[in-house]
């Protein structure tokens, strides 16, 4: 379950940035192609925030869908899974979204 390690890293960064102030909410962006299960991350968040300044904070997860642009035909298309294949049949694609994994914002106070 890699969600635990990822969530622990998020909480560590949030707590460091909070500098002792209580954290009320955290917004993260986790792209659909990262293979992170949002419900697992929420569960882990409650576990790893226990005893920290982020205990009781609300976790909001934004999950942008995967998309790519084909280098062969130039079309932009949605990626539903981790296999980047253009509708034209080309595998020469550039993923343009869905791999994000970042802390967007947090509320303290």
Automatic annotation (TrEMBL):
Which keywords annotate this record?
Metal-binding, Nickel, Zinc
Provide the coiled-coil residue spans. Answer: none
For this UniProt entry, the molecular function terms from Gene Ontology, in alphabetical order, are: nickel cation binding; zinc ion binding
Among InterPro entries, the record links this protein to: Hydgase_Ni_incorp_HypA/HybF_CS, HypA/HybF
Q: Which residues are recorded as binding Zn(2+)?
A: 70, 73, 86, 88
Q: Where does Ni(2+) bind?
A: 2
Q: Name one GO biological process term.
A: protein maturation
Q: What does this protein do?
A: Involved in the maturation of [NiFe] hydrogenases. Required for nickel insertion into the metal center of the hydrogenase.
Question: Which family does the entry's similarity section mention?
Answer: Belongs to the HypA/HybF family.
Protein name per UniProt = Hydrogenase maturation factor HypA
Q: Give the species.
A: Streptomyces halstedii
